[in-house]
Amino acid sequence: MNASARQRIFAKLRSAPVLPKAAPDVAxxxxxxxxxxxxxxxxxxxxxxxxxxxxxxxxxxxxxWPQKLAEILAARQIGRLLLAPGTPHGARARSALxxxxxxxxxxxxxxxxxxxxxxxxxxxxxxAARCAIAETGTLxxxxxxxxxxxxxxxxxxxxxxxxxxxxxxxxHEVVEQEAWVAGLPTNALLISGPSKTADIQVTLAYGAHGxxxxxxxxxxxxx
Amino acid sequence: xxxxxxxxxxxxxxxxxxRAAVDNPALRRSFRAAMDFLIAKRxxxxxxxxxxxTLRTLGEQIRQYNLGKLPExxxxxxxxxxxxxxxxxxxxxxxxxxxxxxxxCKAHSAKLMVKGKSxxxxxxxxxxxxxxxxxEAMESDMGEYIVQLAGEKPSxxxxxxxxxxxxxxxxxxxxxxxGVAYTDNVDELIQIGRRVLxxxxxxxxxxxxGVNFAVAETGTLxxxxxxGNxxxxxxxxxxxxAITGIEKVVEKLAHVPPxxxxxxxxxxxxxxxxxxxxxSGARRPGEKDxxxxxxxxxxxxxxxxxxxxxxxxxxxxxxRCGACMNHCPVYTRIGGHAYGTTYxxxxxxxxxxxxxxxxxxxxxxxxxxxxxxxxxxxPVKIPIPDLLMRLRSEAFSAPHDDPRLRGQGAARSRxxxxxxxxxARIYRSPTLYGITSWLASRFNCLTPSRQGPWTAVRTPxxxxxxxxxxxxxxxx
Lengths: 223, 476
What we know:
The structure holds two protein chains of two kinds. Chain A has helices spanning 2-15, 26-33, 39-52, 65-75, 88-100, 115-121, 171-177; strands spanning 56-61, 124-128, 131-133, 138-141, 157-163, 167-168, 187-191, 196-197, 205-206, 213-220. Chain A is globular and about 70 Å long. In chain A, the strands form three sheets. Chain A has a four-stranded parallel β-sheet, sandwiched between helices. In chain A, a hairpin with a 7-residue loop joins strand 8 and strand 9. The termini of chain A are far apart. Chain A is of the alpha/beta class. Helices cover 33% and strands 20% of the residues of chain A. Chain B folds into two domains: 11-304, Rossmann fold, CATH 3.40.50.10420; 414-475, no CATH class. The radius of gyration of chain B is 25 Å and the shape is globular. In chain B, a hairpin with a 4-residue loop joins strand 5 (213-215) and strand 6. In chain B, helix 17 (358-365) crosses helix 19 (384-396). In chain B, the strands form two sheets. Chain B has a six-stranded parallel β-sheet with strand order 1-10-7-4-2-3, with helices on both faces. Chain B has a four-stranded mixed β-sheet with strand order 8-5-6-9, with helices on both faces. Chain B is of the alpha/beta class. The interface between A and B is large, with 80 and 101 residues.
């Protein structure tokens, strides 16, 4: 039945008039309507937009961010942070936080073996962002074996480390300059704030299904 | 087991449902307030008219270019997805789509399916099919969850529960969710939904979602959402099934950013949604989460009928933002349920005839003042008023020998076409016209005082005692 559904659909599509249209020039539109900004402008634009979407942004330095991370957790009385010790930032965070008495569970096993624990007992997580987009205040994440997909989704607090030098002007620029066509991960994500909904009487509420809080540690040259 | 109990019969019941909706002040307040809110939010996003106009033109070009190559792009998409380990299925009808999905569920002995928001799953009545097969299908988008609890259907394609007040939702949660005290605090209500649904995400066997854009060159399924339920549905369960219409394919990844911008800004007035989820494969060796299987069901259900006609093909440009309904004076007054179709409002009126046939939807095409607002705000420039006129004439004209549209001529009435034929005869002949207008003005006292729907809310029409030509003669 299934193969024939495919055949019938294609037969109908192929019997329709062929109406070729010129290829759209997406790059030209972006060149005309989106200017390339200086790094400081991109940082400011990124920050303005993601803060409008209710994310919290802290400017940090390469040296100071683990300290800021510890402060954020202490202020919320969170004593457990899911992190990836196999990454340089995860390893640094773990050594800084363990000294502060924060437990640092890791995503060692496939989710099937600890799904209930992930859903019930992990209050916060730390991941890096691959890059970001100034136009919309967006973090770009490519989950991998170290920082799997659910790490940025299930914990109520998601903390993201972002290198200020990796902010692009637009999503289009990201796709083009990073040559995404050459190879995408199983899951690529754009994240632009904590989870939210306006489904009840158009009243905005945060923490619908994903993180209730999104905190960006924006790492520049100085802080 | 929750189940949709509301039955929909478009066409026949439309006038009665519209009447009832117009008579319901609370419902009208809900829609008016929500639509005003969305109109203002969208307009704030597009503060530069030149940017908006050029971006809409680009959106139209992208959609038309991709529709122009639809057969080859679908083949490319299928090949790339298959290469990425995503299984592709084809369904010509809703029944076929349901059979495919239930087949996958059965192969995994699935008991619970969590659903991210998918209008195509509404279109095929998947929840009914699941219930009949003993599978619980649980909506997880907050608005969809609310309408499912209430045994209703979405009244808006983006904001499914927009017809309900927070007090109604508070009562609903209190009555239907175990151990919930009455609260009409929106944050608390959302947290109740979060708690209930998290436990479902934890144990669900199948996650189902729609697709906003399917990218042919990379084999990628893109999903737009704010809540995170779409990501959970496509990530937490061991199997992910996506379903979408065959028109959603774009050739290039570079086509996605402008369409995404148009979609979120037009739909909810956000410069981007909270999440944009791009799925290019099932879990690979070494990865620790994500579904082990990903399936895509590509549905026709009448889309090929629209595709076959150059003018009607523009219907398929739609990216489902809902801006046309937000700006529609008819939709705002009668709400989404009155239409009786999965897709309400202007887009529903031009899509549904292909899904259900004109025999079931002819009345809907007349539910428009042709004010043109829908066409003006459409982010991909679908000429909705022109399509409405076309569908009206297809529905009300004499049946063609070779009807390309299902239900063509179905709304034709002998009386009405007889009247118009007489009218045309009179207007073609100056003599006949002169005699008729003379008789009409001379015997205007014979005009009936009841003139159908016209006199329901207006005074009767009556020819003037003297015709224009008589008045001019007197002046001369």
